[in-house]
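Example record used in the benchmark description.
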Amino acid sequence: MKSLFRKKDVASILENNKKASLNRTLGAFDVTLMSIGAVIGTGVMVLTGLVAARDAGPAVVLSFIASAIVCIMVALCYAEFASSVPTSGSAYSYIYVSMGELVAHLVGWSLIIAYTVSTATVAGGWSSYFNTLLHEFGIILPKSLITIPSQGGIVNLPAIIIVLFVTFLLYRGTKESKKVNNFMVIVKLAVIILFVGVGAFHMDTTNLTPFMPYGWSGVFAGAASVFFAFTGFDAVSTSAEEVKNPQKNLPIGIITSLLVCTAIYVVVCLVLTSVANYTQLNVADAMAFALQSVGQGWAASLLSVGAVIGITAVMLAYSFGGSRILYSMSRDGLLPKKFSVLGEKSHAPSAATVVIGLAAALMAGVVDLKQLADLANITLIAAFLLVAISVIIFRRTHPEVERGFRAPFVPALPILTACFCLFLMFNLSKETWLYFGIWIALGLIIYFAYSRKHSTLNQDESKNISA
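Model output (structure tokens):
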């Protein structure tokens, strides 16, 4: 029983981190832009309209604020771990040193599907903006090739193609994909400024009435759904072994990006639900739709161009995060070793990148966007809940570890964070819980059938016993 909760040694992690084989190419500015790139995208350009129409109405702005509060609390916990255990793997690695192997395996297993599903979700939103852009040039793709089977089509082909393109970029290595990401984030921010600037002249406050058509239950259901929109910082924390001075640069990037993104979400939500009535926003390209509805087709076209470029940055960050989790688990022996093999030229985990990319492409082509987003939400919220609890445990078990950043108000902050996470999880549907339960059950089967025996810690224990 004890072997199920064996923990990685922090000292060995820090020592291995100094000799990490991954290239350190990311500075504080790169980390901040990568985090903004992961956070600003699908949430503001896609989920805002869908959640407003289905869950919260104009009060979707409150949904974003509620999620932001929880995510900022989680980010403070992440920042402490990132500054004290700067290793690839994010929540998986943090929990491995605090709660032990079995819990870490399930968290890593959950994060793999969360990032893969998130990439697919973003690709679905990207496809909607891409098709809107094509329409502006008179190009109309066959409906069967841009629609998933449950909606009467065969496959969402543009979504598959963009995921494969992002996979190719990551396969080439972090240094190359970093340059592309920074450009895409700047374009994305310019597009949002355009939307707010043009939309501000067409705001109609009558569209904000009723403000809470679905009541507080709708606001909290919306908060659970848009939680996905803030979770990009977790993907960035997986890059610790590729960051220059991670103890300093990771906390700066994580916290700064979340504060900037929260302000952006609030402004965009207010403008969007004022320009167009929430009942009309049940579309994946809500921002472009809103501008078209008030006769600003030129701005909608420019926005679609920027969205096509900018949303790609989100896929880049999520695919990056998923491949690094898979890489970390493979390196620890919990999954086959081939996933931790690095490319000769790219020095990036090539097999892990390809597997995550192919799985995301398949999902993007055939699965409903909203269902994907909710599955990503529940897995990420569960991981965040455990990270919050882990901060308390790690403070007590490893008080000697140097921390470049310390989360405030411990243990009160982590406990409150965990409670908020639970609250959001219980606002998700029974169907989402069912999918989550199936994935966790599969993870348990894999752990007891393969991971427990092949774990690096188990191999070390066996050597010590035989010696």
